[in-house]
């Protein structure tokens, strides 16, 4: 439910619940996103004490705090009918969890309790664990997003050893690591009721996987285990494989986003040969190559239970597809196969096609973001003529042209099972669209067709329109980002008048003007089935908007209208406002980047006073000032449905902020307000702060770039002490100094709900960092802290480092203006901290000593995934130290070393590290002094490295011989997707080497050669390579020495390929 009833509405409902007689029928009450707060929860709690019919109560996302949770807990002690209670995404905190725990010790009917994202931490988890030891009713408990550490996990483990009713425990997105996993594993050895356990995003690593594996060997009840993004490598996969050989109950294993390669895949495959219970295995986002695919294929030939296999984002190419296809010919159980982004080309597609002609079980095949073109598409879809089971085929972002579309069309004329076909981001053009349209006239099964970004123009739209007049099954048609003009739009609109099945039509970013919009206006007046019409980034103009508005007065189906950047002015806003007063269905209206101005905003505000359906209104970048803000304020005082209002990049000043603030004191529905890039100043901030003391629904407030100083910041900080609902506050790029930030430090001692505070680009200094550091030692909600471009001194930074040693919630820390001494302190903190995943130290004064300390920390730290050292003077010596750490570190995935004075010697050390590192996916070396020798060293590393996907070498000193070396690596490397050589010294010889590599390489999607010395000869060889290469999507060649001859060659080839060439 998204209707905002507020606390008063909840109180009225509560009175009704008290009056319900025992024979009454109300059993389910869904008040999610209703802004009821503590007062509403307390009223409902009183009703629950006497009500005897309600079984399900959903209070998620309602700004309920400790008081509300305590009241509900008291009710649960006597209520004997409620079985499901959802309190997710509130702010009950530790004390709320304590109260609920006491209730669970007495209550004997509640079976499902959802407490996700309530900041209960270890103390709350320990209290609930005590309750679980005696409670005999609860079967499902959701504790995601709570910063539960080892102590909490150990307490839950102790409870599971005695509890005999809990079947589902969800602990994802906490921070208990391998020690927590080991504790829970001990419980699984004796627990005999738990069937579903979610431990994803907890960094349990190989040690945690090993402990769980030992438990699985004896556990006989667990059926679903979710370990996604857990930092498990091949050793962990090997341990899990051994468990699967003997375990006879697990049916679903999710290992998505770990670090499993061929060895791990081979081990799991051996287990599948004997395992007879697993039905779903997710191995997406790994480094599985041909050997791993071959092992999985062998397993599929004998396995008779697996129905879903997810292998997206691996790197086994055609050869891997070939071996998997052999298995599909005999396998009779697999129904879903996901091969997303695996560098599969035409040969792989042909192999899969042959398998589909005999396979009789597969229903879903995902092949998006691979590398085959018309030939692959042609052979693949021929199987559709005989296959009778496939219902979903995803071919997005391949290289399919009109010939491939023609063959698809022929298959659709006879195929009677396919319901969903995704051809987004191919190049079928008008001829391909016409062919598919012929098929749609007779096809009676397809319901969803995605043709976005396919170079379709008016004639293709005409053909599709003719098909829609006859077709009676298609419900979703996506035509965004094509080249359809008014003529094509008129044809489609005419079809909609006759069609009675289409519910969604997406025409975003075409070239539709007034005539096209007028046609849709006429169509929507009579059409009763279309619910979503996407027209953003077209040129609607005055007449088009007015006509559409007239249509909305009578249309009762449309719920979402996107008119962003459509040249709408005040007159058109008037028409839309009049329509909103009587339209009964529209919930989302996007008018961003138009020209509605003063009059238009006032008219829309007037409509909001009576409209009862709109929940989201985007008025960003519309020249709205204080007068219009006043009109909107009056509307918000009476409107009871709007939850999101975007007023970013307007002209609202202090007066406008003040009147909006008055509205928020009584408004009980708005949860998100975006006022970024206005001019509200301190007075406006004061007014908003006063409103926050009363408001109980707003969760997100964006005040970036608003000229707020210390005075305004202090007022906001004072409000946060009392407010219990705001979770995100953005004060980036204001003028806040010491006093303002000190106010926030004090506020955090009492506030338990704010989890994101952005203070980047302010002016505070040392003392505030000291104060905030003390706060961070006890605060258990803040996850992101941005101090970049502030004037922090040594003591403040040291204090922050000390706080990090004990803090268990902060995940992102951005610091500016620190030196090596502070880096040493941070390094000591990183050795103990287990929550920080992103550390941004760009443009500081960190030298070799600081880097040496950070390097030592990386050798033991198991949480950090992103380290940004851009603009520090670490040099080659510092790079050598980092490289030693990278050899053993298994968590860091992104390392940014832009402009760090690194030369060839430093890159030589990095290259040696890359040969053994199995975690790093992105390495940015932009703006250093790397020459051909450094490029040669990287070439050697890329021969064996199986994880790096993005390498940035722009603005270095690499010439032809360096390019030739890296080109050699591209011929064998199966992982790299992005390579940036911008502003080096590569000429035609280097371009020729890279062109030869592109003829063979099947993974690279983006290559930037801008700002080099490539001439016509280089352009010619690159153009020839692109005729063969089927994966490259972007080739950047601007600012070279390419003349008309070379430009013509590139232009000619661009007409027949998908790759975007900038020159």
List keywords for this structure.
single chain; 1063 residues; 11% strand; alpha/beta
Written account of the structure:
The protein is an alpha/beta fold and 1063 residues long. 46% of the residues lie in helices and 11% in strands. The chain has a 38-stranded parallel β-sheet, with helices on one face. Helix 11 links the parallel strand 10 and strand 11 (308-310). Helix 5 (121-134) runs parallel beside helix 6, helix 15 (402-414) runs parallel beside helix 16 and helix 36 runs parallel beside helix 37 (1016-1028). The radius of gyration is 30 Å and the shape is globular.
User: Considering DSSP H and I runs of 4 or more, what fraction of the residues is helical?
Assistant: 40-55%
- What portion of residues belong to β-strands? 5-15%
Count of individual helical segments: 38
Distance between the termini: 52 Å
Rg result:
30 Å
Mean pLDDT: 88
Shape: globular
Question: Which structural class should the secondary elements be placed in?
Answer: alpha/beta
Counted beta strands = 38
> Assembly type of the shown chains?
single chain
Biggest sheet overview: 38 strands, parallel
Residue windows where pLDDT falls under 50 for at least 5 positions: 764-779
């Amino acid at each position: 439910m998204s209707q905002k009833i507020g606390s008063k509405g909840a109180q009225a409902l509560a009175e009704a619940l008290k009056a319900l007689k025992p024979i009454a029928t109300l059993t389910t009450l869904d008040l999610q996103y209703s802004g009821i707060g503590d007062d509403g929860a307390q009223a409902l709690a009183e009703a629950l004490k006497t009500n005897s019919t309600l079984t399900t109560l959903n209070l998620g996302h309602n700004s309920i705090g400790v008081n509300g949770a305590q009241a509900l807990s008291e009710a649960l002690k006597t209520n004997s009918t409620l079985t499901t209670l959802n309190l997710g995404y509130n702010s009950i905190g530790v004390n709320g969890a304590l109260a609920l725990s006491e209730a669970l010790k007495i209550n004997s009917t509640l079976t499902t309790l959802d407490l996700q994202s309530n900041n209960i931490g270890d103390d709350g988890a320990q209290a609930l664990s005590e309750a679980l030891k005696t409670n005999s009713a609860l079967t499902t408990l959701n504790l995601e997003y709570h910063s539960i550490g080892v102590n909490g996990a150990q307490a839950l483990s102790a409870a599971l050893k005695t509890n005999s009713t809990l079947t589902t425990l969800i602990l994802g997105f906490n921070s208990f690591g391998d020690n927590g996993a080991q504790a829970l594993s001990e419980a699984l050895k004796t627990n005999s009721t738990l069937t579903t356990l979610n431990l994803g995003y907890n960094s349990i690593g190989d040690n945690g996987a090993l402990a769980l594996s030992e438990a699985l060997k004896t556990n006989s009840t667990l059926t679903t285990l979710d370990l996604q993004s857990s930092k498990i490598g091949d050793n962990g996969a090997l341990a899990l494989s051994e468990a699967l050989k003997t375990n006879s109950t697990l049916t679903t294993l999710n290992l998505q986003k770990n670090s499993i390669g061929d060895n791990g895949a081979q081990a799991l495959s051996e287990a599948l040969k004997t395992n007879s219970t697993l039905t779903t295995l997710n191995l997406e986002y790994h480094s599985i190559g041909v050997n791993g695919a071959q092992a999985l294929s062998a397993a599929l030939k004998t396995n008779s239970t697996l129905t879903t296999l997810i292998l997206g984002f691996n790197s086994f190419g055609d050869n891997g597809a070939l071996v998997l296809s052999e298995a599909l010919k005999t396998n009779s159980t697999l129904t879903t196969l996901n091969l997303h982004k695996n560098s599969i080309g035409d040969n792989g597609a042909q192999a899969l096609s042959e398998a589909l002609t005999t396979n009789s079980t597969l229903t879903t095949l995902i092949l998006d973001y691979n590398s085959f073109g018309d030939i692959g598409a042609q052979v693949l879809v021929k199987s559709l003529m005989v296959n009778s089971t496939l219902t979903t085929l995803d071919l997005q972002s391949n290289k399919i042209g009109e010939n491939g579309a023609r063959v698809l069309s022929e298959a659709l004329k006879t195929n009677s099972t396919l319901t969903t076909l995704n051809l987004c981001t191919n190049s079928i053009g008008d001829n391909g669209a016409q062919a598919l349209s012929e098929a749609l006239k007779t096809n009676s099964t397809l319901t969803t067709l995605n043709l976005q970004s396919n170079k379709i123009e008016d004639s293709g739209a005409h053909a599709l329109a003719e098909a829609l007049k006859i077709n009676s099954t298609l419900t979703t048609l996506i035509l965004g980002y094509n080249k359809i003009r008014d003529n094509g739009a008129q044809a489609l609109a005419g079809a909609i008048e006759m069609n009675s099945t289409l519910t969604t039509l997406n025409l975003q970013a075409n070239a539709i003007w007034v005539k096209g919009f007028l046609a849709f206006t006429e169509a929507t007046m009579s059409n009763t089935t279309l619910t979503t019409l996407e027209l953003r980034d077209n040129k609607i103009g005055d007449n088009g908007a007015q006509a559409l508005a007239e249509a909305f007065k009578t249309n009762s189906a449309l719920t979402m209208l996107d008119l962003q950047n459509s040249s709408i002015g005040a007159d058109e806003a008037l028409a839309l406002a009049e329509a909103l007063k009587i339209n009964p269905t529209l919930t989302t209206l996007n008018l961003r980047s138009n020209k509605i101005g003063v009059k238009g905003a006032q008219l829309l505000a007037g409509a909001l006073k009576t409209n009862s359906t709109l929940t989201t209104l985007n008025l960003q970048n519309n020249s709205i000032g204080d007068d219009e803000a006043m009109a909107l304020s009056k509307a918000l005082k009476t409107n009871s449905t709007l939850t999101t209002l975007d007023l970013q990049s307007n002209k609202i000043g202090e007066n406008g902020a003040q009147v909006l603030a008055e509205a928020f004191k009584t408004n009980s529905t708005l949860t998100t307000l975006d006022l970024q890039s206005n001019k509200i100043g301190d007075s406006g901030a004061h007014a908003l702060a006063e409103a926050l003391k009363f408001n109980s629904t707003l969760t997100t407030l964006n005040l970036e770039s608003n000229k707020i100083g210390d005075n305004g910041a202090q007022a906001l900080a004072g409000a946060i002490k009392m407010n219990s609902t705001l979770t995100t506050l953005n004060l980036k790029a204001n003028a806040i100094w010491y006093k303002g930030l000190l106010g926030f430090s004090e506020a955090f001692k009492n506030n338990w709900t704010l989890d994101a505070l952005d203070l980047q680009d302010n002016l505070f200094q040392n003392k505030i960092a000291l104060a905030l550091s003390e706060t961070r030692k006890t605060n258990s909600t803040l996850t992101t802290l941005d101090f970049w471009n502030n004037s922090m001194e040594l003591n403040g930074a040291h204090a922050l480092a000390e706080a990090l040693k004990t803090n268990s919630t902060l995940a992102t820390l951005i610091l500016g203006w620190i030196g090596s001494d502070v880096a040493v302190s941070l390094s000591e903190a990183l050795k103990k901290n287990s929550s920080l995943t992103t550390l941004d130290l760009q443009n500081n004064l960190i030298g070799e000593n600081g880097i040496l300390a950070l390097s030592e920390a990386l050798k033991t730290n198991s949480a950090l995934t992103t380290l940004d050292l851009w603009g520090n003077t670490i040099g080659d010596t510092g790079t050598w130290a980092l490289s030693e750490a990278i050899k053993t570190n298994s968590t860091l995935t992104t390392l940014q070393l832009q402009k760090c004075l690194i030369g060839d010697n430093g890159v030589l050390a990095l290259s040696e590290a890359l040969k053994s590192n199995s975690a790093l996916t992105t390495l940015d070396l932009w703006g250093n002094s790397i020459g051909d020798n450094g490029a040669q060293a990287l070439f050697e590393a890329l021969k064996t490295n199986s994880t790096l996907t993005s390498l940035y070498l722009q603005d270095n000193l690499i010439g032809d011989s360096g390019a030739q070396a890296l080109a050699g690596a591209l011929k064998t490397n199966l992982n790299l997707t992005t390579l940036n050589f911008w502003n080096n010294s590569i000429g035609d010889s280097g371009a020729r080497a890279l062109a030869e590599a592109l003829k063979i390489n099947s993974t690279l999607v983006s290559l930037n050669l801008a700002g080099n010395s490539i001439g016509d000869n280089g352009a010619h060889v690159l153009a020839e390579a692109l005729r063969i290469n089927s994966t490259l999507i972007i080739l950047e060649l601007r600012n070279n020495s390419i003349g008309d001859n070379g430009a013509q060659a590139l232009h000619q080839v661009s007409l027949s390929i998908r790759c975007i060439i900038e020159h």
